[in-house]
Amino acid sequence: MLEDAGYRVDISQDGRAALKALQAGHYDLISLDLMLPDIGGLDIIRRIRLHADTADIPIVVVSAKMEQGRLELNGDVENIEWLVKPIDHKQLISLVKQQLLNATRAKILHVEDDMDLHRIVQAMVSDYMTLDHALTLIQAQSLLAQYKYDAVLLDIGLPDGSGWRLIPVIQETQPTAAIIVLTGEEVSAERYDTVHGVLMKRRLTTDSLVDIIGKRITRQR
After folding, report:
1. Which of 205, 168, 16, 4 lies closest to 96, judged by CA?
2. For a tag site, which of 2, 50, 69, 132 has the least CB within 10 Å?
3. pLDDT digits (tens, 9 = 90+) for 106-145
4. Using one digit for the tens of pLDDT, what is the confidence trace for 63-86?
């Protein structure tokens, strides 16, 4: 499921192998069962959190003993999401994306002159990302010159010109930033190929917005 969603995955079939893998390399996230043949999953979590190199790695626990595990940890460990077996594919991928975004705390520039829409977008992503706001092309250019962004969420119809004019500036100043157009107008295939994603304002949902930003940031990194 994780590989199909575009993630690189190593598999450990017991606790000792998992701890050895964590010593040998860096991981952005751990998906963990609690019932393992040698070391219990809760013990692995406690060991991971004791070491500085692994203490901040987000964890998604996937277990039939989810509620029991939560009670045993008693709220002592943060940055853990829980998923009960049997696994729901969409929920698993959603939790993984949320945990990765929480861990990286992506910085986004939202270029939009509609304040109401900006407030809606801010409410949608504030749990996962930091959002800066520009009302105009000039304000956006100023912010791009001062700060580094993981993604730019770009409106096309701005008071001082078309948002398409900003794309070369983003590509030149911040070549690793994902460019996602959020618009109320249809976008031609030619224009579509110049950006990393397009979302229509009338179809905007939290899931669609977080999903497209999360995917693009992960690929860029």
Report:
1. 4
2. 50
3. 889 999 999 999 999 999 888 778 899 999 999 999 999 9
4. 887 777 666 776 556 788 888 888
pLDDT the model gives residue 74:
65
Spatial separation of the C-alpha atoms in residues 25 and 62, rounded to whole Å: 22
Taking Cα atoms as reference points, which of 68, 76, 45, 73 lies closest to residue 58? 45
Other CB atoms within 10 Å distance of the CB of residue 185: 10
- Check if the beta carbon of residue 93 is closer than 8 Å to that of residue 73: no
How many Cα atoms occupy the beta-carbon half-sphere of 158 within 13 Å? 24
Cis check for the bond before 37: say yes or no (omega within 30 of 0): no
Cβ pair 131, 121 in contact under 8 A: yes
Rounded to an integer, what distance in angstroms lies between the CA atom of residue 70 and that of residue 179? 39
Calculate ∠ Cα 101-104-107, nearest 5°: 90
pTM: 0.63
pLDDT tens column, 155-213 = 999 999 999 999 999 999 999 999 999 998 888 888 888 898 899 998 888 888 887 88
| Structure token pair of residue 16 | 């000792």
Phi, psi of 130 (to 5 degrees): -100, 130
